[in-house]
Amino acid sequence: MLDQGEEEGVTLADDGLFPSQIIEATPDSTCQVAELLQKGAVAAFPTETVYGLGGLISSPRAIERIFTLKGRPSSNPLIVHLSSLEKVEEVAILSNRSLQDRLTRLLPLTPGPLALVLPARIDRTVSAVRAGGDTVAVRVPNHPVAAALLSAVSAPLAAPSANRSNYISPTRAQHVLTEFPHAGLLILDGGACRIGVESTVLDLCGVNPRILRYGSISRTTLEEILDEVVESPIGQESSGAGQSARSPGLSRTHYAPRTPLFLKEEWVVAPDTSKRIAWVCFSSASANRVRAQEVRVLSSQGSTDEAASRLYGVLRELDELQLDAIVVDEPPREGVGEAIRDRLYRASARISNDKVL
Ligand code: TXA
Ligand code: MG
Asked: With left for phi above 0 and alpha for psi between -120 and 50, is residue 191 left, alpha or beta?
Protein backbone atom coordinates (compact mmCIF):
# COMPACT_ATOMS: atom_id res chain seq x y z
CA MET A 1 0.00 0.00 0.00
CA LEU A 2 3.00 2.31 -0.30
CA ASP A 3 1.89 3.55 -3.67
CA GLN A 4 0.04 6.76 -2.94
CA GLY A 5 3.03 8.99 -3.52
CA GLU A 6 3.82 11.11 -6.46
CA GLU A 7 5.36 9.69 -9.62
CA GLU A 8 6.90 12.14 -12.05
CA GLY A 9 4.13 14.36 -13.37
CA VAL A 10 1.40 12.68 -11.33
CA THR A 11 -0.50 14.73 -8.78
CA LEU A 12 -0.49 13.61 -5.18
CA ALA A 13 -3.65 12.31 -3.60
CA ASP A 14 -5.81 15.31 -2.73
CA ASP A 15 -7.52 15.88 0.56
CA GLY A 16 -10.71 13.87 0.78
CA LEU A 17 -9.78 11.27 -1.84
CA PHE A 18 -7.58 8.78 -0.03
CA PRO A 19 -7.44 7.77 3.61
CA SER A 20 -4.16 8.44 5.36
CA GLN A 21 -2.43 5.39 6.72
CA ILE A 22 -0.27 4.51 9.72
CA ILE A 23 2.55 2.09 8.96
CA GLU A 24 4.89 0.62 11.53
CA ALA A 25 8.39 1.98 11.06
CA THR A 26 10.62 -0.91 9.96
CA PRO A 27 13.82 -0.72 7.87
CA ASP A 28 11.75 -1.66 4.79
CA SER A 29 8.84 0.75 5.32
CA THR A 30 11.29 3.55 6.20
CA CYS A 31 13.12 3.01 2.88
CA GLN A 32 9.84 2.93 0.96
CA VAL A 33 8.75 6.22 2.55
CA ALA A 34 12.19 7.65 1.78
CA GLU A 35 11.69 6.80 -1.91
CA LEU A 36 8.34 8.58 -1.94
CA LEU A 37 9.86 11.63 -0.28
CA GLN A 38 12.61 11.69 -2.91
CA LYS A 39 9.87 11.89 -5.57
CA GLY A 40 8.34 14.95 -3.95
CA ALA A 41 5.71 13.31 -1.70
CA VAL A 42 4.95 14.40 1.86
CA ALA A 43 4.98 11.91 4.76
CA ALA A 44 4.81 12.03 8.55
CA PHE A 45 7.52 10.61 10.81
CA PRO A 46 8.38 10.52 14.52
CA THR A 47 11.08 12.59 16.20
CA GLU A 48 12.05 12.69 19.87
CA THR A 49 9.99 15.88 20.32
CA VAL A 50 6.81 15.57 18.22
CA TYR A 51 5.79 14.01 14.88
CA GLY A 52 6.83 15.98 11.79
CA LEU A 53 5.28 16.40 8.35
CA GLY A 54 8.27 16.04 6.04
CA GLY A 55 9.09 17.01 2.48
CA LEU A 56 12.19 17.76 0.40
CA ILE A 57 13.44 21.33 0.91
CA SER A 58 14.12 21.49 -2.83
CA SER A 59 10.63 20.40 -3.96
CA PRO A 60 8.20 23.30 -4.48
CA ARG A 61 5.31 20.82 -4.70
CA ALA A 62 6.19 19.09 -1.43
CA ILE A 63 6.64 22.37 0.43
CA GLU A 64 3.42 23.81 -0.97
CA ARG A 65 1.57 20.66 0.10
CA ILE A 66 2.94 20.94 3.64
CA PHE A 67 1.67 24.52 3.92
CA THR A 68 -1.70 23.57 2.39
CA LEU A 69 -2.25 20.51 4.58
CA LYS A 70 -1.39 22.44 7.74
CA GLY A 71 -3.25 25.57 6.75
CA ARG A 72 -0.03 27.32 7.72
CA PRO A 73 0.45 31.00 6.89
CA SER A 74 3.22 31.51 4.32
CA SER A 75 4.89 33.94 6.75
CA ASN A 76 5.84 31.07 9.11
CA PRO A 77 9.09 29.33 8.04
CA LEU A 78 9.80 25.58 8.40
CA ILE A 79 12.63 23.80 10.25
CA VAL A 80 15.08 21.94 8.02
CA HIS A 81 16.03 18.49 9.39
CA LEU A 82 19.51 17.14 8.72
CA SER A 83 21.02 13.69 9.36
CA SER A 84 24.07 15.31 10.94
CA LEU A 85 25.24 18.79 11.92
CA GLU A 86 28.23 18.19 9.62
CA LYS A 87 25.78 18.75 6.75
CA VAL A 88 24.79 22.20 7.99
CA GLU A 89 26.73 23.98 5.25
CA GLU A 90 24.45 22.37 2.67
CA VAL A 91 21.80 24.88 3.73
CA ALA A 92 23.53 27.57 5.82
CA ILE A 93 26.45 29.99 5.43
CA LEU A 94 29.06 29.78 8.19
CA SER A 95 31.53 32.37 6.97
CA ASN A 96 31.39 34.24 10.27
CA ARG A 97 34.00 33.12 12.88
CA SER A 98 31.79 33.63 15.92
CA LEU A 99 29.04 31.59 14.30
CA GLN A 100 31.47 28.73 13.73
CA ASP A 101 32.61 28.99 17.32
CA ARG A 102 29.04 28.90 18.65
CA LEU A 103 28.19 25.87 16.51
CA THR A 104 31.27 24.01 17.73
CA ARG A 105 30.25 24.67 21.31
CA LEU A 106 26.70 23.48 20.64
CA LEU A 107 27.87 20.24 19.03
CA PRO A 108 27.40 18.18 22.22
CA LEU A 109 23.67 19.03 22.13
CA THR A 110 23.23 17.42 18.71
CA PRO A 111 21.53 15.31 17.68
CA GLY A 112 18.81 16.63 19.93
CA PRO A 113 15.80 18.89 20.49
CA LEU A 114 17.50 22.09 19.35
CA ALA A 115 16.75 24.07 16.17
CA LEU A 116 19.36 26.68 15.19
CA VAL A 117 18.52 29.71 13.08
CA LEU A 118 21.43 30.51 10.75
CA PRO A 119 22.12 32.64 7.66
CA ALA A 120 20.67 30.66 4.73
CA ARG A 121 22.14 29.50 1.45
CA ILE A 122 19.08 30.72 -0.34
CA ASP A 123 19.74 28.65 -3.47
CA ARG A 124 19.33 25.41 -1.47
CA THR A 125 15.79 25.69 -0.20
CA VAL A 126 12.52 26.59 -1.83
CA SER A 127 11.90 30.17 -0.71
CA ALA A 128 8.71 29.15 1.12
CA VAL A 129 10.76 27.02 3.56
CA ARG A 130 12.35 30.27 4.77
CA ALA A 131 9.09 32.22 4.45
CA GLY A 132 10.99 34.28 1.88
CA GLY A 133 13.62 35.33 4.42
CA ASP A 134 17.41 34.96 4.42
CA THR A 135 17.73 32.68 7.46
CA VAL A 136 17.11 28.98 7.87
CA ALA A 137 16.36 26.93 10.99
CA VAL A 138 18.19 23.58 11.14
CA ARG A 139 17.79 20.65 13.48
CA VAL A 140 19.29 17.15 13.77
CA PRO A 141 16.62 14.94 15.36
CA ASN A 142 17.64 12.34 17.91
CA HIS A 143 15.24 9.55 17.00
CA PRO A 144 16.24 6.29 15.29
CA VAL A 145 13.37 6.42 12.77
CA ALA A 146 13.98 10.08 11.86
CA ALA A 147 17.71 9.38 11.57
CA ALA A 148 17.16 6.31 9.36
CA LEU A 149 14.70 8.21 7.19
CA LEU A 150 17.03 11.19 6.72
CA SER A 151 19.94 9.00 5.79
CA ALA A 152 17.80 6.94 3.37
CA VAL A 153 16.49 10.13 1.71
CA SER A 154 20.05 11.50 1.56
CA ALA A 155 18.74 15.05 1.53
CA PRO A 156 17.44 17.53 4.12
CA LEU A 157 13.73 17.45 4.95
CA ALA A 158 11.60 20.41 5.96
CA ALA A 159 9.32 19.19 8.74
CA PRO A 160 6.93 21.27 10.78
CA SER A 161 4.93 19.55 13.50
CA ALA A 162 2.33 17.29 11.85
CA ASN A 163 -0.76 19.15 13.07
CA ARG A 164 -3.08 21.72 11.55
CA SER A 165 -1.85 25.23 12.14
CA ASN A 166 -2.46 26.54 15.68
CA TYR A 167 -3.51 23.17 17.12
CA ILE A 168 -1.56 20.95 19.53
CA SER A 169 1.46 19.09 18.13
CA PRO A 170 1.11 15.30 17.69
CA THR A 171 3.10 12.99 19.94
CA ARG A 172 1.71 9.71 18.54
CA ALA A 173 1.04 8.42 15.02
CA GLN A 174 -2.68 8.25 15.83
CA HIS A 175 -2.71 12.01 16.57
CA VAL A 176 -1.37 12.65 13.05
CA LEU A 177 -4.06 10.41 11.54
CA THR A 178 -6.72 12.34 13.48
CA GLU A 179 -5.34 15.62 12.08
CA PHE A 180 -5.19 14.43 8.46
CA PRO A 181 -7.56 11.47 8.04
CA HIS A 182 -8.13 11.84 4.28
CA ALA A 183 -4.89 13.29 2.97
CA GLY A 184 -3.45 10.12 1.40
CA LEU A 185 -0.63 10.57 3.89
CA LEU A 186 1.71 7.83 5.04
CA ILE A 187 2.51 8.10 8.74
CA LEU A 188 5.56 6.19 9.97
CA ASP A 189 4.73 4.91 13.45
CA GLY A 190 7.66 5.05 15.85
CA GLY A 191 5.59 4.99 19.04
CA ALA A 192 5.09 7.83 21.51
CA CYS A 193 7.57 10.74 21.33
CA ARG A 194 9.99 10.66 24.27
CA ILE A 195 10.11 14.40 25.00
CA GLY A 196 6.65 15.50 23.88
CA VAL A 197 7.18 19.25 23.40
CA GLU A 198 8.73 20.91 20.36
CA SER A 199 12.44 21.73 20.09
CA THR A 200 14.11 24.79 21.59
CA VAL A 201 14.61 27.33 18.76
CA LEU A 202 17.83 29.36 19.11
CA ASP A 203 18.67 32.21 16.75
CA LEU A 204 22.44 32.45 16.19
CA CYS A 205 22.33 35.27 13.64
CA GLY A 206 22.37 38.24 16.03
CA VAL A 207 24.98 39.73 18.35
CA ASN A 208 23.73 37.48 21.16
CA PRO A 209 22.19 34.05 20.75
CA ARG A 210 18.44 34.45 21.22
CA ILE A 211 15.92 31.84 22.37
CA LEU A 212 12.92 32.11 20.05
CA ARG A 213 11.02 29.13 21.43
CA TYR A 214 11.46 27.30 24.73
CA GLY A 215 11.97 23.53 24.62
CA SER A 216 13.55 20.81 26.71
CA ILE A 217 17.01 22.35 26.26
CA SER A 218 16.76 25.05 28.87
CA ARG A 219 18.08 28.58 28.98
CA THR A 220 20.46 27.54 31.78
CA THR A 221 21.98 24.78 29.66
CA LEU A 222 22.45 27.16 26.74
CA GLU A 223 23.98 29.82 28.99
CA GLU A 224 26.51 27.33 30.31
CA ILE A 225 27.65 26.71 26.73
CA LEU A 226 27.26 30.15 25.15
CA ASP A 227 28.03 33.05 27.41
CA GLU A 228 25.17 35.44 26.94
CA VAL A 229 21.77 34.20 25.81
CA VAL A 230 18.81 36.51 25.43
CA GLU A 231 15.15 35.55 25.30
CA SER A 232 12.27 36.71 23.18
CA PRO A 233 9.40 38.01 25.21
CA ILE A 234 6.50 35.59 25.30
CA GLY A 235 3.85 36.53 22.79
CA GLN A 236 6.23 38.47 20.55
CA GLU A 237 4.26 39.45 17.49
CA SER A 238 5.32 40.88 14.15
CA SER A 239 7.14 44.16 14.38
CA GLY A 240 4.83 46.04 12.07
CA ALA A 241 2.10 45.80 9.46
CA GLY A 242 3.11 43.65 6.51
CA GLN A 243 6.32 42.48 8.20
CA SER A 244 7.06 38.93 9.18
CA ALA A 245 7.50 38.20 12.86
CA ARG A 246 11.04 37.32 13.91
CA SER A 247 9.75 33.83 14.65
CA PRO A 248 6.10 33.63 13.72
CA GLY A 249 5.66 30.43 15.72
CA LEU A 250 5.90 32.65 18.79
CA SER A 251 2.45 34.01 18.14
CA ARG A 252 0.23 33.85 21.22
CA THR A 253 -2.41 31.82 19.43
CA HIS A 254 -0.28 28.67 18.99
CA TYR A 255 -0.48 25.28 20.63
CA ALA A 256 -4.05 25.64 21.91
CA PRO A 257 -6.79 23.04 22.31
CA ARG A 258 -10.27 24.03 21.07
CA THR A 259 -11.74 23.76 24.57
CA PRO A 260 -11.08 26.99 26.53
CA LEU A 261 -7.95 26.43 28.63
CA PHE A 262 -7.23 28.25 31.88
CA LEU A 263 -4.19 28.27 34.08
CA LYS A 264 -5.27 27.62 37.66
CA GLU A 265 -4.60 31.20 38.72
CA GLU A 266 -6.86 32.56 35.95
CA TRP A 267 -9.63 30.14 36.86
CA VAL A 268 -9.86 31.55 40.36
CA VAL A 269 -11.18 34.81 38.93
CA ALA A 270 -13.88 33.15 36.85
CA PRO A 271 -15.41 30.25 38.78
CA ASP A 272 -18.67 28.82 37.47
CA THR A 273 -19.64 25.58 39.16
CA SER A 274 -22.33 24.69 36.61
CA LYS A 275 -19.65 24.17 33.98
CA ARG A 276 -18.17 20.80 33.00
CA ILE A 277 -14.51 21.03 33.76
CA ALA A 278 -11.40 18.93 33.36
CA TRP A 279 -8.52 19.55 35.74
CA VAL A 280 -4.96 18.67 34.75
CA CYS A 281 -2.49 18.10 37.60
CA PHE A 282 1.26 17.63 37.55
CA SER A 283 1.31 15.09 40.40
CA SER A 284 -1.01 12.75 42.34
CA ALA A 285 -0.49 14.87 45.44
CA SER A 286 -2.15 17.92 43.87
CA ALA A 287 -4.93 15.79 42.27
CA ASN A 288 -6.18 14.83 45.74
CA ARG A 289 -7.30 18.42 46.31
CA VAL A 290 -9.22 18.81 43.05
CA ARG A 291 -12.93 18.47 42.32
CA ALA A 292 -13.91 18.29 38.65
CA GLN A 293 -15.74 16.02 36.19
CA GLU A 294 -12.47 14.84 34.71
CA VAL A 295 -9.13 14.82 36.50
CA ARG A 296 -5.86 13.87 34.80
CA VAL A 297 -2.49 13.40 36.47
CA LEU A 298 0.47 13.98 34.14
CA SER A 299 2.97 12.21 36.40
CA SER A 300 2.05 10.39 39.59
CA GLN A 301 5.49 11.06 41.07
CA GLY A 302 5.58 14.65 39.80
CA SER A 303 8.31 14.08 37.18
CA THR A 304 8.48 17.11 34.89
CA ASP A 305 9.86 15.05 32.00
CA GLU A 306 7.04 12.54 32.23
CA ALA A 307 4.51 15.37 32.46
CA ALA A 308 5.92 16.96 29.30
CA SER A 309 5.76 13.69 27.38
CA ARG A 310 2.09 13.19 28.33
CA LEU A 311 0.81 16.78 28.17
CA TYR A 312 -0.26 17.05 24.52
CA GLY A 313 -1.85 13.59 24.47
CA VAL A 314 -3.90 14.43 27.56
CA LEU A 315 -4.99 17.80 26.13
CA ARG A 316 -6.06 16.09 22.89
CA GLU A 317 -8.02 13.44 24.79
CA LEU A 318 -9.78 16.06 26.93
CA ASP A 319 -10.52 18.17 23.87
CA GLU A 320 -12.61 15.26 22.51
CA LEU A 321 -14.90 15.33 25.56
CA GLN A 322 -16.67 18.61 24.64
CA LEU A 323 -16.13 20.12 28.09
CA ASP A 324 -16.63 23.77 29.00
CA ALA A 325 -13.09 24.27 30.20
CA ILE A 326 -9.75 22.66 30.87
CA VAL A 327 -7.97 24.01 33.94
CA VAL A 328 -4.27 23.29 34.37
CA ASP A 329 -2.33 23.44 37.63
CA GLU A 330 0.73 25.64 38.01
CA PRO A 331 3.44 23.90 35.93
CA PRO A 332 6.81 23.06 37.49
CA ARG A 333 9.59 25.59 36.91
CA GLU A 334 12.60 23.37 36.46
CA GLY A 335 13.95 21.82 33.22
CA VAL A 336 11.35 21.30 30.53
CA GLY A 337 8.85 23.03 32.87
CA GLU A 338 9.99 26.26 31.17
CA ALA A 339 8.63 24.98 27.84
CA ILE A 340 5.44 23.61 29.42
CA ARG A 341 4.73 26.99 31.06
CA ASP A 342 5.34 28.74 27.77
CA ARG A 343 2.95 26.49 25.81
CA LEU A 344 0.22 26.64 28.45
CA TYR A 345 0.55 30.40 28.70
CA ARG A 346 0.03 30.69 24.96
CA ALA A 347 -2.87 28.24 24.96
CA SER A 348 -4.62 30.20 27.69
CA ALA A 349 -3.76 33.55 26.12
CA ARG A 350 -6.01 32.63 23.22
CA ILE A 351 -8.94 32.64 25.60
CA SER A 352 -8.25 36.09 26.97
CA ASN A 353 -7.63 37.40 23.46
CA ASP A 354 -10.94 36.01 22.25
CA LYS A 355 -12.71 37.24 25.38
CA VAL A 356 -14.48 33.91 25.87
CA LEU A 357 -14.75 34.59 29.58
O1 TXA B 1 10.54 19.79 17.60
C2 TXA B 1 10.40 20.36 16.51
O3 TXA B 1 11.09 21.34 16.18
C4 TXA B 1 9.37 19.79 15.54
C5 TXA B 1 9.86 18.44 15.00
C6 TXA B 1 8.96 17.86 13.93
O7 TXA B 1 11.18 18.58 14.57
N8 TXA B 1 9.12 20.73 14.48
C9 TXA B 1 8.44 21.90 14.71
O10 TXA B 1 8.27 22.66 13.59
O11 TXA B 1 8.02 22.21 15.80
P12 TXA B 1 7.22 23.86 13.51
O13 TXA B 1 7.23 24.29 12.09
O14 TXA B 1 5.92 23.41 14.03
O15 TXA B 1 7.86 24.99 14.38
C16 TXA B 1 9.01 25.65 13.89
C17 TXA B 1 9.26 26.91 14.66
C18 TXA B 1 8.22 27.94 14.39
O19 TXA B 1 8.03 28.67 15.60
C20 TXA B 1 8.88 28.83 13.33
O21 TXA B 1 8.38 30.14 13.36
C22 TXA B 1 10.33 28.76 13.78
O23 TXA B 1 10.52 27.43 14.23
N24 TXA B 1 11.26 28.98 12.66
C25 TXA B 1 11.48 28.20 11.58
N26 TXA B 1 12.36 28.77 10.75
C27 TXA B 1 12.73 29.93 11.30
C28 TXA B 1 13.60 31.00 10.91
N29 TXA B 1 14.29 30.95 9.77
N30 TXA B 1 13.71 32.06 11.74
C31 TXA B 1 13.01 32.12 12.89
N32 TXA B 1 12.17 31.16 13.33
C33 TXA B 1 12.01 30.08 12.53
MG1 MG C 1 4.23 23.51 15.06
From this structure: left
> What residue's CA is closest to ligand 1, atom 3?
199
Contact (CB, 8 A) for 148 and 27: yes
Mutate to test the pocket of ligand 1, among 145, 188, 201 (most ligand atoms within 8 A of CB): 201
How many other CB atoms are found less than 10 A from the CB of residue 204?
21
From CA 322, how far away is CA 181, in angstroms rounded?
20
Handedness of CA 243, 246, 252, 256 (dihedral sign): positive
**Strand segments (E) across the chain:** 21-24, 43-45, 52-56, 79-81, 114-119, 135-139, 157-158, 186-189, 200-203, 210-213, 230-231, 261-263, 277-281, 294-297, 325-328
Distance 114 CA to ligand 1 centre (A): 10
Condensed to tens digits (0 to 9), the pLDDT of residues 281-290 reads 999 988 888 8
On whether the CB atoms of residues 153 and 80 are closer than 8 A, the answer is no
pLDDT of res. 13? 46
Q: Which residues line ligand 1 (CB under 6 A)?
A: 47, 49-50, 52, 76-79, 113, 115, 117, 130, 133, 135-137, 139, 141, 159-161, 198-199, 201, 212-213, 247-249
Single pTM value for the model: 0.92
Ligand 1 pocket, mutate which of 198, 211, 217 (most atoms under 8 A from CB): 198
